[in-house]
């Protein structure tokens, strides 16, 4: 981590808001939450206690009400019974008793029996026989105290006694009614739903329970337990009975009932209390996020490479509301009306923050200075953007982009690009980002480009030659730097009279046809070559002026069709006249040269021999052609004599192209004299004296060398012996040293000084080791001396050094010279500089083993390295990875942009490939757009696989970036094949073949991928090769046959024609489907020949049917794209129709939409020529392509064929039905016939017939069949009829 403190951004000096007390606020909120939680629990606990009290009071009230209700019910039932009892006379006999019993039971169903008692309680009569409760009844009468009714029960509670007393009447007796226990249960029955308080009715005398609440678990007649007695909250006596009602309150049960709700409320309160806690935690997390966001913002704000300023525009809203300014016009009017407040308005655009990049770029020290530099529009600030910002805010622009010019610290001009994105929400205008980019370099480049464009425009217009741009289609001249008519002497009126194409009128008739033919050839080959010709135009003075014309393609459209050409026309009339005059002069001088006895020769300006006089035959016995073919050096007997002339040639060669050196050469080099011993044709040696003179023209330009050779045999014989040794020594091309026996230098020639740089005088009496390189001196010189002592001679390569210290390789030969007595007299050492030879060897090695374009290893070096790697891997048991790579879609780019652009792409591709591999891996170019990669061996197969996958993925990823060629971006992909050794082969050729097979498999898999070699790939590749080989001979061996599918009228009743379909009957494979071999035909370029055979065969077959009275009106033939666009289709069809004698109207050609739309203008011309033959044109698979209805209207077509994909869904498919109806209606509106293919059901036929389809075709009428079967099926009158 760096300890450098990051720069602090500049902020506007304003009062900062107080820091929020986040910790205090959180503590207060936490305390408040705890207090609220405690109050909530206290409230819930109080509410629980209050609910218990309410339940207890409810139990008391309920028990009191129940007691009153029971008392009233008992009084009611007693009154009912009194009303039913006889008042005057009680029943006397059992029958009356039973009758009264039944009467009472209707009102009191629980009545078991009754007894009549005397006022004293004595039993008078009883309906229950054998009853033993007389004592109890007597005691009951006493306790009733003569009340109208009284209730009680026996000891075990099984009988309820209702004692009734009639105070009025004749007899004041008591009636005792014995009732079942259910009587009391019916009196206490409650209709209240839900939870009811517990209660019990007990006998006040013995405290035994008579009846109780159904929820109580005690026995019917049992006494209350102490626990139940403790629960009692109310004991109420029931009037006129021995009973009392006890109300009971079970606190534990009530608490169990209230506790779930209490717990639920507590949990709910606790859950709600967690919300503030969560909010506090969320606030803390958000605060951390805000702090982190602020820190990231600060890092981004300061770390970005763009100058940033933060503007506060919030004050503008108040200004707009105050001044009612809502538009640009209102702002302009307000500023004109209030010029004094302009600066105050601009102060509303506050600069609140500036990063360090903006500080350096604007050369400011504070936000106020930044505001003055950018916003303030004072007279000294001509680059203020304040008014533009105001307009952008008022017009609600999303983004404001401006370019301003400022001066930097050094006073230099700098151009800044300002971008401000205005927020959509008004609340966000407090912090608007203004980014500032320094575009000074780009601006200066743009200004330079404008200046350069102006410069080249002036250059083009000042060029004396005619530069012109012509539109290919309209033949109009779009641009010309000089007007050809004015050059030819015509005035404006005369040119206007001749029209826009005046140049065709002025063109020589003989040249016009040649020029148009050349243009047509250019158009056919796509302007891939340059057009070069000479044309004659008629001058106003009726003389013909000759122009040299050069034209080439300038612009192409999206389909690579040339739309414009550029040409240069140069008036060469004067040049041709001068050349003819020069030719005449040359002829005269040639005749003079041929008439003298000396041999005259000359060279051109590039020192190439261009003339030898015929006298060479007289002097040397050689023909002129022989000398041109073999050169002068073949005649010279001693090649060393050529040193001088070679030196002169080398001196002149170095001076070529250098005007200063040529001027020096002209002043210094005069006539040169050379002597040669030449061999005559008869073998005799002849001395020749050659005088060479440099030839210059009148302007001082070098034209060549003129030589005059003379036979000096006589003179040479006299001087030969005297000069031989000196000549050999002085004029040798090699440096020569002569030393004494001790090794000291005693003599050296001029070549020595020229080669070593030492003057001869400087090396005399010196040892030769001063010329050698120190590093090799000791050991190497000892070896040389040893060889000299043993063999008296030595020859080899030695590194020497020149006077300036430069090291150079030299070929050295040393010979020991002995006198007549055999003693060592001297050493003769010759050496020559072989630097150029070594450099040539290195260049030859480079050319032999490296690609000249990409400098990658070529095929030879790559195979050598692969062979070495395979041998090493075999020894070390390692794995070698070989990758073949081929660029996809490189050829269209190379063809459209030219080879120079293609070469640049290949160079960049080589660079990208080198970036994807390690330094010890090999990347080679095999040729074209094919590359190979050899990865270093790996110890295991998995490591080799992983390395291969990694490199392949890196290569594919590197091709995602586009190639920029000629200012445009191009994307190419690659197909990569990978083979591993030894898995996929140990032999070099086998491994390369397998990798190549895998690469082609990758192309078949959609390109832009890599594939590892698999054994079955060779099988598929071999099968494909066999298929291609068989296809090349299929046409010659008559293996192609035609099948015919019938076509019927729209109602299915009349045969209207047949479609000829190509089939291949292979002798071994059988009948091959068209989809398997037609694409291969197109790739092999055989589709044109096979297509012509299909047309000819179909026409011959139809003619045969007509002769056999088979009524087939026409035959349809499919035409391929290449067959359609080769330019000779009409001619071949016309020939076929002429040979077969078939009327043109009987032949229909089917073309797809894509063929017609590929080159619309060309297609229109071809279709027009075909229509002129009388053929019918049909558009096949209509609706599946991309044709324009506008072009469809222009094309001279007759029939539209609805594709089978639309017919398959008929009639149920709504979309297919709508498309079919639309195609039929559209075709009929354009006067075109419609044929539907793929009709297989009667429903489809009915639909098409209903909507007016003209013809139908499909399996419903017949599958494609051979010609003989077709003839048998449709030769009679009973054709297929579909009613």
UniProtKB/TrEMBL annotation:
> Required co-factor?
Mg(2+)
What are the residue boundaries of the PAC domain, all occurrences included? 531-584, 667-724, 794-846
Is Membrane found in the keyword set?
yes
Q: Where's the EAL domain?
A: 1024-1278
Q: Does the keyword Membrane apply?
A: yes
Keywords on this record?
c-di-GMP, Membrane, Transmembrane, Transmembrane helix
Q: What is this protein called?
A: cyclic-guanylate-specific phosphodiesterase
């Amino acid at each position: 981590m760096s300890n450098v403190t990051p720069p602090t951004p500049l902020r506007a000096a304003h009062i900062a808001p107080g820091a929020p007390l986040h910790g205090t606020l959180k503590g207060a909120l936490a305390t408040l939450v705890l207090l609220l939680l405690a109050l909530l629990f206290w409230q819930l606990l109080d509410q629980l206690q209050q609910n218990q009290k309410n339940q207890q009071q409810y139990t008391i009230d309920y028990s009191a009400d129940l007691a009153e209700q029971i008392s009233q019910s008992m009084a009611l039932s007693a009154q009912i019974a009194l009303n039913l009892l006889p008042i005057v006379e009680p029943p006397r006999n059992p029958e009356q008793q039973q009758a009264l019993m039944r009467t009472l039971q209707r009102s009191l169903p629980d009545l078991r029996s009754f007894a009549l008692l005397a006022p004293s309680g004595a039993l008078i009569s009883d309906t229950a026989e054998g009853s033993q409760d007389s004592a109890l009844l007597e005691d009951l009468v006493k306790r009733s105290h003569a009340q109208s009714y009284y209730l009680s029960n026996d000891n075990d509670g099984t009988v309820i006694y209702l004692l009734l007393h009639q105070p009025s009447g004749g007899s004041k007796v008591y009636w005792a009614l014995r009732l079942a226990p259910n009587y009391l249960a019916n009196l206490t029955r409650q209709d209240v739903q839900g939870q009811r308080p517990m209660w019990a009715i007990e006998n006040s005398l013995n405290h035994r329970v008579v009846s109780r609440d159904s929820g109580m678990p005690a026995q019917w007649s049992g006494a209350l337990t102490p626990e139940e007695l403790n629960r009692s909250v109310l004991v109420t006596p029931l009037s006129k009975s021995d009973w009392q009602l006890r109300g009971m309150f079970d606190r534990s049960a009530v608490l169990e009932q209230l506790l779930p709700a209490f717990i639920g409320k507590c949990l709910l309160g606790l859950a709600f209390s967690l919300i503030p806690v969560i909010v506090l935690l969320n606030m803390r997390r958000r605060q951390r996020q805000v702090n982190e966001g602020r820190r990231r913002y600060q890092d981004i704000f300061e770390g970005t490479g763009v100058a940033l300023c933060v503007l506060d525009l919030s004050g503008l809203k108040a200004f707009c509301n105050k001044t009612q300014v809502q538009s640009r016009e209102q702002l302009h009017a307000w500023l004109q009306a209030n010029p004094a407040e302009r600066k105050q308005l601009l102060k509303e655009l506050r600069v609140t923050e500036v990063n360090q990049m903006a500080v350096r770029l604007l050369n400011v020290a504070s936000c106020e200075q930044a505001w003055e530099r950018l916003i303030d529009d004072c007279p000294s600030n001509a680059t203020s953007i304040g008014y533009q910002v105001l307009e952008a805010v008022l017009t609600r622009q999303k983004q404001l982009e401006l370019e301003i010019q400022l001066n930097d610290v050094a006073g230099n001009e700098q151009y800044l690009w300002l971008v401000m994105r205005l927020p959509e929400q008004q609340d966000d205008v407090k912090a608007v980002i203004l980014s500032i980019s320094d575009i000074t370099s780009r601006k200066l480049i743009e200004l330079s480009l404008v200046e350069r464009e102006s410069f080249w425009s002036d250059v083009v217009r000042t060029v004396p030659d005619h530069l012109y741009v012509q539109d290919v289609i309209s033949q109009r001249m779009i641009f010309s730097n000089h007007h050809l008519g004015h050059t030819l002497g015509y005035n404006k009126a005369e040119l206007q009279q001749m029209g826009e194409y005046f140049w065709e009128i002025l063109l020589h008739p003989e040249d016009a046809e040649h020029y148009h033919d050349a243009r047509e050839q250019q158009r056919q080959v796509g302007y891939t070559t340059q057009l070069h010709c000479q044309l004659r135009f008629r001058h106003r003075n009726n003389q013909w002026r000759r122009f040299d014309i050069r034209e080439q393609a300038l612009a192409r459209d999206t389909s690579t069709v040339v739309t414009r050409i550029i040409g240069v026309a140069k008036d060469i009339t004067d040049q041709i006249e001068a050349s003819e005059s020069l030719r005449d002069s040359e002829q005269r001088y040639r005749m003079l040269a041929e008439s003298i006895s000396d041999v005259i020769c000359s060279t051109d300006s590039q020192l190439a021999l261009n003339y030898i006089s015929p006298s060479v035959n007289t002097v040397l016995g050689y023909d002129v052609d022989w000398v041109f073919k073999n050169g002068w050096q073949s005649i010279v007997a001693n090649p060393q004599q050529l040193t001088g002339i070679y030196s002169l040639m080398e001196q002149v060669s170095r001076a070529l192209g250098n005007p200063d050196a040529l001027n020096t050469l002209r002043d210094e080099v005069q006539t040169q004299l050379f002597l040669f011993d030449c061999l005559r044709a008869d073998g005799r040696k002849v001395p020749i004296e050659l005088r060479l003179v440099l030839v210059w023209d009148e302007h001082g330009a070098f034209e060549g060398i003129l030589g005059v050779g003379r036979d000096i045999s006589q003179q040479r014989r006299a001087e030969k012996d005297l000069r031989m040794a000196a000549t050999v020594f002085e004029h040798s091309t090699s440096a020569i040293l002569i030393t004494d026996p001790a090794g000291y230098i005693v003599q050296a020639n001029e070549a020595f000084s020229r080669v070593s740089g030492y003057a001869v005088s400087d090396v005399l009496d010196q040892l030769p080791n001063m010329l050698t390189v120190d590093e090799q001196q000791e050991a190497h010189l000892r070896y040389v001396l040893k060889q000299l002592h043993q063999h008296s001679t030595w020859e080899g390569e030695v590194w020497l050094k020149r006077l300036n210290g430069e090291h150079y390789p030299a070929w050295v030969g040393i010979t020991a010279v002995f006198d007549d007595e055999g003693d060592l007299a001297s050493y003769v050492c010759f050496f020559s500089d072989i630097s150029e030879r070594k450099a040539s060897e290195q260049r030859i090695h480079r050319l032999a083993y490296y690609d000249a374009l990409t400098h990658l290893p070529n095929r030879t070096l790559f195979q050598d390295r692969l062979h070495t790697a395979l041998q090493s891997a075999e020894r070390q048991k390692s794995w070698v990875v070989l990758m073949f790579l081929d660029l996809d879609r490189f050829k269209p780019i190379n063809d459209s942009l030219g080879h120079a652009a293609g070469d640049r792409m290949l160079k960049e591709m080589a660079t990208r490939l080198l970036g994807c591999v390690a330094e010890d891996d090999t990347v080679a170019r095999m040729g074209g757009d094919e590359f190979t990669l050899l990865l270093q061996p790996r110890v295991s197969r998995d490591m080799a696989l992983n390395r291969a996958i990694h490199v392949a993925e890196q290569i594919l990823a590197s091709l995602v970036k586009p190639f920029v060629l000629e200012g445009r971006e191009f994307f190419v992909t690659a197909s990569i094949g990978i083979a591993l050794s030894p898995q996929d082969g140990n032999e070099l050729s086998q491994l390369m073949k397998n990798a190549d097979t895998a690469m082609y498999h990758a192309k078949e898999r959609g390109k832009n991928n890599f594939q590892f070699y698999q054994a079955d790939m060779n099988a598929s590749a071999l099968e494909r090769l066999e298929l291609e080989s068989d296809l090349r001979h299929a046409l010659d061996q008559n293996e192609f046959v035609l099948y015919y599918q019938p076509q019927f009228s729209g109602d299915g009743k009349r045969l209207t024609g047949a479609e000829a379909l190509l089939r291949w009957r292979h002798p071994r494979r059988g009948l091959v489907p068209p989809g398997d071999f037609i694409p291969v035909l197109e790739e092999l370029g055989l589709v044109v020949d096979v297509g012509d055979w299909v047309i000819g065969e179909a026409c011959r077959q139809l003619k045969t049917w007509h002769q056999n009275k088979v009524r087939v009106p026409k035959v349809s033939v499919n035409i391929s794209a290449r067959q359609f666009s080769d330019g000779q289709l009409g001619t071949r069809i016309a020939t076929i129709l002429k040979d077969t004698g078939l009327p043109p109207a009987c032949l229909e050609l089917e073309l797809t939409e894509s063929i017609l739309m590929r080159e619309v203008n060309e297609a229109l011309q071809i279709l027009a020529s075909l229509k002129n033959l009388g053929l019918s044109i049909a558009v096949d698979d209509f609706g599946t392509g991309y044709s324009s209805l506008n072009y469809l209207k222009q094309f001279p077509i007759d029939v539209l064929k609805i594709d089978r994909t639309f017919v398959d869904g008929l009639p149920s498919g709504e979309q297919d039905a709508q498309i079919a109806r639309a195609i039929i209606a559209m075709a009929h509106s354009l006067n075109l016939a419609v044929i539907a293919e793929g009709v297989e059901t009667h429903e489809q036929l009915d639909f098409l017939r209903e909507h007016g389809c003209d013809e139908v075709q499909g399996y419903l009428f017949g599958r494609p069949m051979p010609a003989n079967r077709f003839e048998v099926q449709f030769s009679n009158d009973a054709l297929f009829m579909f009613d």
